Amino acid sequence: MISSIGLFAAVGIFSLALSAIGGATAQGRTASAAFDAVARQPEAAGNVQSALILSLAFIESLTLFVFAMIFILAGRVTG
Amino acid sequence: MAELFNVWETVWTVISFAIFLFLLTRLFYRPVMKMLEERRQTIESGLEEARKAREQAEALNREYQERLAAAQREAQAIIERAEQTAERFRQERLQAAQEEAERLLQQARERIQRERDDAIAALRQEAADLALLAAERIIRRRLDGEEQRRLAEEAIAEVGRVQ
Amino acid sequence: MSTHEFALAASEHGSDALFYIGPAPVTSAVVGLWAVMAFILLLAWLVTRRLEMVPNSRLQNVLELAIEGLHSWTSRIMGPERAWRYLPIPATFFLFILISNYSGLIPILPHLPWYVPPTSHWGVTAGLAVFVFLFVQYTAVKETRGAYYKHLFDPPLLTPLMLPLGIIEELVRPFSLSLRLFANIFAGETALSVMIGIVAAIPFLLPLPIFVTALEMVAGFVQALIFTTLTAVYVGAASEHHH
Prior knowledge:
The complex is a heterotrimer.
Chain A: H1 4-40, H2 45-78
Helix pairs in contact in A: 1-2
Chain B: H1 7-141, H2 145-162
Helix pairs in contact in B: 1-2
Chain C: H1 3-11, E1 17-21, E2 24-27, H2 28-49, H3 58-85, H4 88-103, H5 122-144, H6 159-201, H7 207-238
Antiparallel strand pairs in C: 1-2
């Protein structure tokens, strides 16, 4: 018999892992595209760098939204 | 169970942050930004002054160069003029010397001529005297005869030819 | 971690009131908020007390470098003139968030009962984001006399579609802005406390929390920069004059 907390923990970890995979893939593609751009146009390195950091943060935040949602719902489940 | 989101914290944050921003602007940003702006202006005016000073120095340098070139040209002209004068003077002196030499030569020639003439005349005189002397002696020794007369005539003729 | 510990970690998050001012509870995050603000004000006072045009204190050099760096960073977003005029907003957010994030990495501070890094609480980051939202509306009204809101009605035919979307976008901004910052810092601290728990059980895994701390140093800086950059983007859009 699986408790509701156990089920929640399993689903939570799984969805967090899933979003981490997605985020990591997207960040990898972003970084690779940025490095390609810098290799082609080294003089634009500054602009590419700031755009890269912004993009990585946006992607990163999706994974962290999932993390935060798990915590919010954890309060509901355990409380 | 603690909540993940506490709305009072939001309220506190908005109020505190507004006050914090106000204080920090008064205490920090205004003096710092004013100082940075002043420093920027100081640097800019310093650069501007340096640029002006350099331009002035360049203009001065150009003027000096021009003056130097003019002075050099003038000096060159003076030297040329002096050389010309010297040349002319030399020519004049040379000519004068030549003329002097010519004149002296002429004088010498004339004198030589005169002296020669004098010498010839003197010689002739001497010859006539000698002839007379000889004639006298001969006449004294042999004052007789036809021959003596002939001799005398010959001597006279001789003298007459020489004359 | 057992379910009990998981619940404990959530409750240790510390949103319980330390005391009340009137009806308003003051939590350890609010104390942290004030502590960080007081620390920054102290630094500012130390610097401006003897401000030199030719700086000879290291603190002034560092803060000047930060100011100039933030100015050149926001200049790329809204141009040097407006970046200079609005500099206090992004600069204050940056200093506050950076110092708050880094305060969580000092080993002692997070274990004081009355202090938590304010940016690790969603309530606080939401307050910051709400402040940004209010400031953007204020700028839009004051600077462009509401010309900023024209984009809500941009293709006149599509207004019924665009207006709700625009309003939703405007309202989602503080949500995502605050959640991104809070979730990053909170996740970092949770990861760090989990690592420390692991090291307490298995001491030879000591490099783990050190590695996470190094990672959080980078993340703390980047998150401060992200919040600052997005604030500059929003303020820049609200103060832009269309000719």
